[in-house]
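User: structure tokens for Nucleoside diphosphate kinase, please.
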Amino acid sequence: PARQRTLVLVKPDGVARGLVGEVLRRIEAKGYTLVALELRTADADLLAEHYAEHAGKPFLGPLIEFMSSGPVAAVVVEGHRAIEGFRSLAGATDPTTAAPGTIRGDLARDWGRKVIENIVHGSDSPESAAREIALWFPSL
Ligand code: DAT
Ligand code: MG
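Assistant: Done. Predicted tokens:
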């Protein structure tokens, strides 16, 4: 079976709240493998590339500001159907309605800020995963 890789980020809200271990625990408990892991503070250039699909949207500026406000844990996760599998673990974008049992549903909430803070990012397709992994981990 083809192994698939996905880029997961524990966002600055997740790192600040001490939830890196909880997110990694859920990924490992699901049975996926961690193949790279790094804590770092991303700059605006990296984040503009990372979120290129959102160019022109009103929340892009606040999103980049939030994502560069502190360290993120960047993780490459591997396993058959890991892209779809992690998106399922993460839950819906809006943490208010994300299903209980998911990372966002259990651990995130709406704070009424300009950008939704929802603990994690996960690549949404094989093309996005390849692009994002090359961006965050050029040596992989
Ligand atoms: P996801 O992270 O679920 O793939 P996305 O790629 O559409 O969601 O958006 C990236 C992030 O931007 C998302 O995790 C939270 C934030 N965001 C998305 N839509 C938003 C909106 N309408 N208002 C504020 N923040 C938003
Ligand atoms: Mg997305």
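User: Anything notable?

Assistant: The chain has one domain: 4-136.
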